[in-house]
Inverse folding.
């Protein structure tokens, strides 16, 4: 592996039933929320992304410059998140990567420092996974976990948080040192989304 960030697996393949509309297409700063997520990953130095969308969704025609994006389509948006995880894990393993990030689309992408902190420390002493200091996302998944996710039955309901709880820190689960409030947010309801927008407006006025 080189010094660049491994691929991002961005999960947006669900029904968005609690939000009531596709989360990746929400309008944000004159573009879509998906565009903002991808731009944040690019700002950290990422160049490769696999985005999981519901089957039948038309992907955007334009992505942020400097990114190579592949679109994966979840045939059953009502399936557990493990189905999207498995789909994305299989795609990145087929490319020969030994690690990849997992980020659900409803968790705001953190700033560049956190991505780099996790990646540099993971490379120094390879772990099965790396997570932000206080938990949450993104999660950096090593090859063993990617293979486990890729080979799980789509309907298994295999939960990533349960897999991570089964690891034995610090030998196999790395916790980063950089903190970012975005990592533990879940913008999966209209109320959460409106709170986020209000908070962003307040920060811009400061």
């Amino acid at each position: 592996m080189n010094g660049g960030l491994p691929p991002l697996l961005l999960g947006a393949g669900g029904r968005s039933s609690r939000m009531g509309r596709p989360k990746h297409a929400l309008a944000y700063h004159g573009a879509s929320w998906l565009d903002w997520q991808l731009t944040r990953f690019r700002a950290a130095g990422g160049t490769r992304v696999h985005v999981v969308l519901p089957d039948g969704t038309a992907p955007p025609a334009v992505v942020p410059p400097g990114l190579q994006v592949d679109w994966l389509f979840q045939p059953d948006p009502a399936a557990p998140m493990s189905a999207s995880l498995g789909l994305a894990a299989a795609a990145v393993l087929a490319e020969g990567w030994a690690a990849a990030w997992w980020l659900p689309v409803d968790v705001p992408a953190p700033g560049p420092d956190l991505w780099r902190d996790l990646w540099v420390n993971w490379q120094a002493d390879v772990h099965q996974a790396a997570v932000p200091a206080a938990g949450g996302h993104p999660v950096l998944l090593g090859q063993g976990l990617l293979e486990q996710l890729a080979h799980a039955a789509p309907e298994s309901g295999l939960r990533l948080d349960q897999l991570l709880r089964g690891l034995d820190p610090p030998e196999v689960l790395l916790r980063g040192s950089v903190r970012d409030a975005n990592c533990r947010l879940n913008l999966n309801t209209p109320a959460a989304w409106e709170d986020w927008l209000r908070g962003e407006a307040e920060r811009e006025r400061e």
About this structure: Residues 99 and 142 are 4 Å apart (CA to CA). Residues 190-205 form the longest helix (16 residues). Helices lie at 33-43, 81-94, 112-124, 143-151, 160-165, 190-205. Strands lie at 8-11, 27-28, 31-32, 48-54, 68-74, 99-104, 129-131, 139-142, 173-175.
